[in-house]
Amino acid sequence: MSEHDASRRKFLVNAAVGAGAVAGAGLVPRALGQDQETRGSAATAGTSSMAHMDGEGRGAFFNADDAATVAAFTERIMPGAPGKAGARDAGVLNYIDLALAGAYSDLQDWYRCGLAQLDAYCRKTHNDGFVRLAPSQQDEVLMALDDGQATGFSWPTAQEFFTTVRTHTMEGMFADPLYGGNRNFAGWRLVGFPGAQAVFTPSDLRSKQEFTREPIIGLQAEAKIPARRS
């Protein structure tokens, strides 16, 4: 992994911790949380049952081409490394896809226009679509978007598109797996977040080290635990 990739990963992980983003479902906007919690059991049974038709976690909203672009885009935002999950490993595409089919449905046209403008920009500047560019070229595209230098963007603007997809990438990395991302608690493992543990020992509370005791517990598992009787 390049130095640029490593610094990007460090920035996002530190941002997640600094913003309290690992506080489970608290990372996810309330509307999305309510939408997912009121869906049927198939949509709330965790990431294993939320995988879609192609194994990449796509099928609720994205077509195949847009799914491939979003998967590649989010992976460059949060690249994987040996022993450390990236956006693909954590199922970020699945998270965004489900959100756009539900609580984020008002952003469907926004995403369609943004992806179309991205494709036009990549073909104009690099003669190919984003997915087929080399990682270094993909990074150049991301930097141009972030700096507002990418041409051909009107709605959304280049910066708006980049910033929103980056935000959704962080949500997919660090929100509770109930919402379709953070597969196998990959994001929480990166930052040492233990999930919704029922009990912490005195030693746990005193420790300044990352929490590594298994299992990490998410909201879906907690929902299955019967309430204690007084």
Molecular structure report:
The protein has one domain. About 10% of the residues have low confidence. 38% of the residues are buried. It contains 12 helices and no strands. It is mainly α.
Can you tag this structure with a few keywords?
230 residues; mainly alpha; 12 helices
Quick one: overall form?
A: globular
- What's the count of strands? 0
Measure the end-to-end span: 53 Å
Helicity level: 40-55%
Number of helices: 12
Q: Determine the structural class based on helices, strands and strand pairing.
A: mainly alpha
Q: Unreliable runs, pLDDT <50, ≥5 residues?
A: 21-25, 39-55
- Biggest sheet overview: none
Q: β content, as a range?
A: under 5%
Rg, nearest Å: 18 Å
| H/E series | HHHHHHHHHHHH
Number of domains: 1
Query: Mean pLDDT across all residues, rounded?
Result: 80
